[in-house]
Structures are given as C-alpha cells and as structure tokens.
C-alpha cells in the first residue's frame, strides 16, 4: 500500500515544490527548504522542549543564532546561491512563529523580493485563529500545526501552562484553550485553502494510545497529512524512553486510518537548509561573518 501511495502525488500542486509535501521520492528530492530562525519567544511550555543555540544538535528548537527579519533576507540571498533547488522558505522556531511578529514580518519581506518561493509556517496553533487572516494575506501556502493530544487530561501533562491574553492558564484550562484554538485554526486555514500537516510528538506512557483520536479530530478539522515524530527525551520528559520501533509502527497505523501519514521527517533544526535527509547547507550558510552580530 505504501509503494502504491508513493507512486501518486498526494498534493499535485506542491509535488516537486516542497520536500515535505511531495509524496514521491522524485518530488521530495527536487525541492529544498530553508528554515529561518527568526522567532525568539514562545507562548506555551511543552514538557519535551529544550531550545538552544549551537552548531551541532540535529533537532527542532536549535539554531546557530537568532536572525532578525533583515538578517533573514541576507540568509535567503545566500541560500539561493548555495542551493539552486531552494523552493520553500519555512519558519519553525526556535520558539513559536506566531508568538511574536518576526515571522510574519519576515514572510512579507520574502514574498515581496522572491514571489516564487513557497512560504511554509509551523506553529503550536495557539494564535492561529486570531492571526489566520494575516497568514493568508502574506501568501503562506503550507501550514504545520503541532497537536499532541485532543484530550485535555493528556494535553495538560504535555503542556501544563500557556500564556493567553496576557494571563497564565494552567492544567486543564490551558489544555482546553490550546486544543480549541488548534482545531479552530486548522478549520479556518483549510477554509482559506492552505494545505495543512499536523505534527504529533509520540510520547511513551503519555499519548501513545491516543494517536488515532488525534488523527481523527485533526482530519475532521481539515488537516491533510500527519507526521508522527518520536519523542526526543529531554527537559521534563528526560526520564521517558524514546518510543520503540514497534510503538512507532502502531501509532502510524492508527493514524493512517484517518489521514495520510508522512514517513520521512528528519526532525530538522530551526535553521536547516537543503533537502531533508539528502543535502545540508546549514554550516556553509552560517559562515563566520553571519555568526558575528
Ligand atoms: Fe517549544 Fe514549540 Fe512547545 Fe514552544 S510550542 S514550548 S517552541 S515545542
Ligand atoms: Fe520536513 Fe520534518 Fe524537516 Fe519539518 S522537520 S522540514 S516536516 S523533514
């Protein structure tokens, strides 16, 4: 079934134009993506999140350095020279791209200078309903929303507190608000024609039996694909194991009953550049001149 799926593009308009929405191997290899680490802050507190600045860790939440929107333009310029197949500019951290204005400001600059680049945004979804008009207006085509649970009891363990309208919400209240905004935001984005992928971190003992429910709800809201990301045990979840191969297989099979499953995620850095799993220009991109503030 997988071989058959892979022979037919799931998103014909994005095939060969976005490595993570291309579902054939030819399409995946044809297009590179650049992540711009312009988003400093976050508005929620996930138990597995450890943000850092360094050159070595290969995982989300890590970048060489934070970029201002002006710096980001210079990075795109250089990336287009280094990496001729660059087709997508995404913003996925190091914090949440909708918690501050840097990401949408950066996207507007890029759209004005390089209108042919596909714009891709990754968010925890808390601010999605209130910022969806801006997101559509700036021309973002592909959206990833991280949804780790649709049951508030489970979600409260994963993200015990959030900042909402200048107040702190804890526990169940935080979880209900986050899940509600994520599902509403996905529905609004789908209605505006964005192509939506959901990322779900697979967390042993916490949400591993809940993946089918997440997939069913986000599919009903309008998501088109799901990416099950194995937990990297760190921060408050440092003592949990990483999910076994069998657990990953079962979770993906559960999700596949409701949604197309993305199988090739590399858990990229917030400043990645190249085709995920095939090429990596990040070190070349951040030469010593770009490291100096
Ligand atoms: Fe970290 Fe992203 Fe969660 Fe914010 S939303 S705490 S950046 S994993
Ligand atoms: Fe694609 Fe996964 Fe990398 Fe995001 S983290 S760019 S979905 S491979």
UniProtKB/TrEMBL annotation:
Q: Which GO terms describe its molecular function?
A: 4 iron, 4 sulfur cluster binding; lyase activity; metal ion binding
UniProtKB keywords: 4Fe-4S, Iron, Iron-sulfur, Lyase, Metal-binding, Nitrogen fixation, S-adenosyl-L-methionine
Q: Which domain of life is it from?
A: Bacteria
Which pathway features in its UniProt record? Cofactor biosynthesis; Fe-Mo cofactor biosynthesis
User: What is a biological process (GO) this protein takes part in?
Assistant: molybdopterin cofactor biosynthetic process
> Radical SAM core domain spans which residues?
28-269
Q: Which cofactor does it need?
A: [4Fe-4S] cluster
Per the record's keyword annotation, is Heme included, yes or no? Answer: no
Answer whether the UniProt record assigns the keyword Transmembrane to this protein: no
InterPro entries with a match to the protein in the record:
Aldolase_TIM, Elp3/MiaA/NifB-like_rSAM, MoaA_NifB_PqqE_Fe-S-bd_CS, rSAM, rSAM_sf
Task: Provide the family line.
Answer: Belongs to the radical SAM superfamily. NifB family.
Question: Function of this protein?
Answer: Involved in the biosynthesis of the iron-molybdenum cofactor (FeMo-co or M-cluster) found in the dinitrogenase enzyme of the nitrogenase complex in nitrogen-fixing microorganisms. NifB catalyzes the crucial step of radical SAM-dependent carbide insertion that occurs concomitant with the insertion of a 9th sulfur and the rearrangement/coupling of two [4Fe-4S] clusters into a [8Fe-9S-C] cluster, the precursor to the M-cluster.
The name on file for this protein is: FeMo cofactor biosynthesis protein NifB
Q: Which organism is it from?
A: Rhodopseudomonas palustris (strain ATCC BAA-98 / CGA009)
- Read off the lineage from the record: Bacteria, Pseudomonadati, Pseudomonadota, Alphaproteobacteria, Hyphomicrobiales
């Amino acid at each position: 079934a997988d071989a058959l799926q892979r022979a037919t593009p799931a998103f014909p308009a994005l095939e060969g134009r976005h490595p993570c929405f291309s579902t054939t191997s030819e399409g995946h290899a044809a297009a590179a993506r650049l992540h711009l680490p312009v988003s400093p802050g976050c508005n929620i507190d996930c138990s597995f999140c450890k943000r850092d600045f360094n050159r070595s860790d290969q995982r989300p939440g890590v970048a060489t350095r934070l970029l201002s929107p002006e710096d980001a333009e210079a990075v795109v310029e250089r990336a287009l020279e280094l990496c001729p197949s660059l087709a997508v500019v995404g913003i996925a951290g190091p914090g949440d791209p909708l918690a501050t204005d840097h990401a949408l400001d950066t996207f507007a600059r890029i759209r004005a200078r390089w209108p042919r680049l596909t714009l891709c945004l990754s968010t925890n979804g808390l601010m999605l309903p209130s910022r969806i008009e801006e997101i559509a207006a700036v021309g973002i085509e592909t959206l990833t929303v991280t949804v780790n649970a649709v049951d508030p009891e489970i979600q409260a363990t994963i993200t015990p507190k959030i900042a909402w309208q200048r107040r702190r919400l804890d526990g169940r209240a935080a979880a209900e608000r986050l899940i509600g905004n994520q599902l509403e935001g996905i529905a609004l984005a789908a209605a505006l024609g964005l192509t939506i992928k959901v990322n779900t971190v697979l967390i042993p003992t916490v949400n591993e039996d809940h993946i089918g429910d997440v997939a069913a709800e986000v599919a009903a809201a309008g998501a088109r694909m799901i990416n099950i990301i194995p937990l990297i045990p760190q921060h408050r979840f440092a003592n949990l194991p990483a999910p076994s191969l069998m657990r990953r297989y079962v979770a993906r099979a559960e999700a596949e009953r409701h949604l197309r499953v993305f199988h090739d995620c590399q858990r990229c850095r917030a400043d990645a550049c190249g085709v995920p799993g095939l090429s990596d220009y990040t070190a070349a991109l951040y030469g010593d001149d770009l490291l100096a503030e």
